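Objective 1b of the project was to move from sequence-level analysis to a structural picture of ligand recognition. The entry below was assembled by the postdoctoral researcher (A.K.) and checked by the PI before modelling. It contains the amino acid sequence of the target and the SMILES of the bound compound, magnesium ion.
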Amino acid sequence: MVDVKKEEIFEALKAVIDPELKRDIVSLGMVKEVDVSGADVSVQIELTTPACPLKEQIASDVRRVLKGLPGMGQIQIRFTGRVAATEEKNSLPGVGHVVAVGSGKGGVGKSTVAVNTALALSRDGARVGLLDADVYGPNVPTMLGVHEPERVTESKIVPARKHGIRVLSMGFFLNPDQPVIWRGPMLHSAVKQFLYDVEWGELDYLIVDLPPGTGDVQLSLSQMIPVSGAVIVATPQNVALEDAAKAVTMLRKVNIEILGVVENMSYFICPHCSERVEPFGHGGAEAAAKEWCVRFLGRLPMDPAVRTGGDAGEPPALRDDELADAFRTIARNIAGEISTRQHGVPRSIALGKTSP
Ligand SMILES: Nc1ncnc2c1ncn2[C@@H]1O[C@H](COP(=O)(O)OP(=O)(O)OP(=O)(O)O)[C@@H](O)[C@H]1O
Ligand SMILES: [Mg+2]
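Corresponding predicted holo structure:
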């Protein structure tokens, strides 16, 4: 057997292009370690996020390229992931990226998407926090079955830990039976405290569940929170999309980038005849994403398990089935979109309008 040289391996791996970042994995610095033992090779690849949506494709491209080298034996690939923090000046200490989940409309699934995205990212190995900033109707405590912070010290709130993520909700401090009437300054100082007097620890992603609508509250919240980008949740019908368009306009006005659109309640599989039904029409949110020049992040079925899981504090992202896969795909697409933006991939290329 012929010994393979490290340099040959690095050279060969220059042919592997990261499908999101559109550059080769060697010049991106993703090839961290190459060990050669006789004809066998082990490669460590550091992804820009542990929730990389295209890990499998990169793995198969690496294998294909290395197999082409003469005398190659066993190939072992080890993936690690490191999220580079945002370089924005007013970012939260220790927090890599803040992702807000919003919509123009109430009840379309923001909290569901926020909770399950956070859990799916965490299952992929990312360090994740979830801030329920819905001051009027915080639902995260019920959806996760957690009702108080871990601790409150004199100067800091220590978020709860649940299913591997850090969680903080306005609901931890409110009487669940009383409606909340916030006046502007109170709201402002409450949210400020929620962000800045919290020991989040080291996080790759902090997911923020925003309240519904596009009023003053959302505006001041989105201005106060140093957001890397927002995810818009919409259902496919026109009326819902009209409201989502307002949210997009509002967020863009306050310089918050839109990471993409999730289509919720996209379809329903009849439990009796397995027919696929589309109560709100088909493809509306995907078309809207195109119009707004943002990524379509994926679709979620209308599934009773989403509602029962939400009510019981057992979110579907924790399951091992197709429903959990749908949430995982969305979470990975969000993580991938953040990486492409950080690497300055031109929008037209990232959205696949032109070839690289
Ligand atoms: N895909 C789905 N299938 C079934 N039920 C769903 C789905 N998405 C959301 N739901 C249910 O619909 C209700 C509203 O969802 P959710 O609370 O996530 O919406 P929201 O946009 O956060 O609402 P709000 O505007 O009140 O904050 C919840 O009971 C939730 O479990
Ligand atoms: Mg909500």
